[in-house]
C-alpha cells in the first residue's frame, strides 16, 4: 500500500512502520491565528507538491509537562497553530476499514493527539482499523464563552475543532483505507465529556456512527456562568468589555498567564473553568437533556469508569477533606445537595474523598448518560480494575490508568517504573479486541466476550481485571447511593426487595 496519499488539499507522504502506515501532522483546519484567533475553524489551505507527514504538528498552548508523563519527557512545540491530526492504517487491506477517532483528555487544558501513550500502531494492526488522533484548542483558546462578548467571537471552539476534524475524516479518510460510514469516537476524561457534548451538537450529527466514553460523561457550563468567566478573563487581562477586540493583539503567553491566574482565583482545586458551555448555538442544550430527548438516537455507546478514579487526585499523605466537606464540594460541582444518608454511608466506609469523587463525579455521570441513552440505542457498560505495581500513579485503577491498555502502549507504563505482567497484557488484549469489535460492528461482544447490553433491570457490566469477567449490578449498594432518585434505580431496588 502506498505512503503517498492524495487528499483534496494536496499530496501527503507518510511512513511505513512495520505492519502499519503512519501520517502525522496533517492540517485539518487553517491556523487559528491573527484574525482567526477565537473564531470557528476554517478549512485548511491547499498546498502544492508533496507535504511531508513524518512528524507531529505543534500542540495547543498548555501548562508545562513538569512530571514528564504527558509527552514522554520530550518538549513539543506549543502554538496556536495546532489543528493537526495523525493517522495509523494497517498494510494490505483490500476493503474499507472502520475508523477510530481518539479525543484526548486533560481537563480541557492539557494534552494532545501526539502523546506517546496514544500511539495508534498496535490498535490499528490488531484491530484492523484506521486510528486517528487529533489536537484541539485548549484552555482560554478553546473553552471560554467568547461569543458573549460580541459577534466577532465564537464559543466552544474546542468542540468546533473536533467537528472540523470529523468533517475532514468524512471527506478524506477513504484515501487512507477508512470507511467514513463506520467512524467511532473514543475518548477519556475531558475527551469523554467532549463526546457527550458532540452527541448534543447539531453540527456533529452524522459525522460518527458510535462512541466510547471512558471516565467522562456529560460536563458543561451554563451560558450565564460562561459569560461571567469570559468577562473575568478580560478583567484579568486589564481589558474593559468594549476593548475585547484587543484580545487578538495580545501575545499567547499573556493570555495563558491570565488564564492561570484566573483559574487559581476562581477555578478552585476541582473546578473546571474551561469546559464546553451551553451557548444555545453550537451546544443548544445540556447534553443529558439532549440525549434523553433522542439526540443520540441510533448511536450505540460504550460507557465505563475505573474502579478507583478518585485516587488519581490524592497522592499518599495528602490531606483529605472530611466526608461532609467532600460531599458539599461535589454537590456544588453537580448542582445537587448531598443527603445525610450519603454522609453516613461514605463516613462509615473509611475511603473518604477519593471514593466520593469516584462515585459522584465519574460513576454517576456514566450511569446518568447510559440510562438516558438506552431507549435510543444500545449501551454497554464496563469497569476497569487493573493496577500496575511500581508505577508512580497507576498502582491502582485510578483515573486514566486504562488508556495504555486500550492502545496497547504498555511500554509507557514500564518507562515510568511499572511492572507489566502477563495478566496486564491479557487485559490489554481483551480491551483492544472489544474496542475494535465495537468499531467494526457496533457490538463489543463480537470480540468473543460475554457482554450483554446494559439495562436498568440487569446492569450487566464487564470488569476488565484479573480475570476479565461479567458482573451484574456490581457494588449495588454504592450504585443506589450514587443515583438514588433515577427511575432505573427505583426499578432495581424494587426487584431487590422482592
Automatic annotation (TrEMBL):
Region (Disordered): 49-78, 475-498
Domain Carboxylesterase type B: 3-466
Compositionally biased region (Basic and acidic residues): 487-498
EC number: 3.1.1.-
Signal peptide per UniProt: none
Entry similarity comment: Belongs to the type-B carboxylesterase/lipase family.
Protein name: Carboxylic ester hydrolase
Coiled coil: none
PANTHER family: CARBOXYLESTERASE (PTHR11559)
Entry annotation: catalytic residues: 189 (acyl-ester intermediate), 309 (charge relay system), 399 (charge relay system)
Keyword DNA-binding carried by entry: no
Keywords annotated in UniProt: Hydrolase
EC top class, as a word: hydrolase
GO MF annotation terms: cholinesterase activity
Amino acid at each position: 500500500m502506498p505512503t503517498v496519499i492524495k487528499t483534496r488539499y494536496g499530496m501527503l507522504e507518510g511512513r511505513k512502520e512495520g505492519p502499519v502506515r503512519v501520517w502525522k501532522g496533517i492540517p485539518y483546519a487553517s491556523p487559528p491565528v491573527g484574525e482567526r484567533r477565537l473564531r470557528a475553524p476554517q478549512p485548511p489551505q491547499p498546498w502544492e507538491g508533496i507535504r511531508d507527514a513524518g512528524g507531529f504538528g505543534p500542540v495547543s498552548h498548555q501548562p508545562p509537562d513538569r512530571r514528564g508523563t504527558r509527552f514522554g519527557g520530550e518538549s513539543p512545540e506549543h502554538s496556536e497553530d495546532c489543528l493537526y491530526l495523525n493517522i495509523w492504517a494497517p498494510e494490505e487491506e483490500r476493503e474499507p476499514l472502520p475508523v477510530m477517532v481518539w479525543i484526548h483528555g486533560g481537563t480541557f487544558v492539557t494534552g494532545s493527539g501526539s502523546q506517546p501513550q496514544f500511539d495508534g500502531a498496535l490498535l490499528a494492526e490488531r484491530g484492523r482499523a484506521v486510528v486517528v488522533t487529533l489536537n484541539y484548542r485548549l484552555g482560554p483558546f478553546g473553552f471560554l464563552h467568547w461569543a458573549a462578548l460580541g459577534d466577532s467571537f465564537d464559543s466552544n471552539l474546542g468542540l468546533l475543532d473536533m467537528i472540523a476534524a470529523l468533517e475532514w475524516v468524512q471527506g478524506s479518510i477513504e484515501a487512507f483505507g477508512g470507511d467514513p460510514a463506520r467512524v467511532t469516537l473514543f475518548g477519556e476524561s475531558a475527551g469523554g465529556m467532549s463526546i457527550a457534548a458532540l452527541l448534543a451538537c447539531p453540527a456533529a450529527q452524522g459525522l460518527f456512527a458510535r462512541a466510547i466514553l471512558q471516565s467522562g460523561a456529560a460536563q458543561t457550563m451554563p451560558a450565564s456562568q460562561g459569560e461571567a468567566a469570559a468577562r473575568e478573563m478580560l478583567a484579568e487581562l486589564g481589558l474593559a468589555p468594549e476593548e475585547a477586540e484587543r484580545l487578538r493583539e495580545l501575545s499567547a503567553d499573556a493570555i495563558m498567564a491570565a488564564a492561570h491566574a484566573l483559574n487559581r482565583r476562581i477555578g478552585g482545586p476541582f473546578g473546571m473553568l474551561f469546559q464546553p458551555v451551553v451557548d444555545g448555538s453550537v451546544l443548544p442544550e445540556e447534553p443529558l437533556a439532549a440525549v434523553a430527548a433522542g439526540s443520540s438516537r441510533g448511536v450505540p455507546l460504550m460507557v465505563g469508569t475505573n474502579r478507583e478514579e478518585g485516587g488519581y487526585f490524592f497522592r499518599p499523605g495528602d490531606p483529605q477533606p472530611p466526608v461532609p466537606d467532600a460531599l458539599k464540594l461535589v454537590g456544588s460541582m453537580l448542582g445537587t445537595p448531598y443527603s445525610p444518608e450519603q454522609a453516613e454511608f461514605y463516613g462509615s466506609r473509611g475511603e473518604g474523598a477519593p471514593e466520593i469523587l469516584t462515585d459522584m463525579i465519574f460513576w454517576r455521570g456514566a450511569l446518568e448518560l447510559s440510562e438516558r441513552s438506552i431507549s435510543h440505542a444500545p449501551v454497554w457498560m464496563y469497569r476497569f480494575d487493573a493496577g500496575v505495581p511500581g508505577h508512580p500513579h497507576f498502582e491502582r485503577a485510578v483515573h486514566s490508568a486504562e488508556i495504555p491498555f486500550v492502545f496497547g502502549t504498555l511500554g509507557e507504563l514500564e518507562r515510568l517504573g511499572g511492572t507489566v505482567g502477563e495478566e496486564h497484557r491479557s487485559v490489554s488484549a481483551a480491551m483492544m479486541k472489544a474496542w475494535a469489535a465495537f468499531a467494526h460492528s457496533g457490538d463489543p461482544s463480537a470480540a468473543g466476550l460475554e457482554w450483554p447490553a446494559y439495562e436498568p433491570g440487569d446492569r450487566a457490566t464487564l470488569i476488565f481485571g484479573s480475570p476479565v469477567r461479567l458482573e451484574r449490578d456490581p457494588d449495588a449498594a454504592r450504585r443506589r447511593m450514587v443515583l438514588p432518585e433515577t427511575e432505573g434505580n427505583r426499578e432495581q431496588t424494587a426487584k431487590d426487595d422482592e
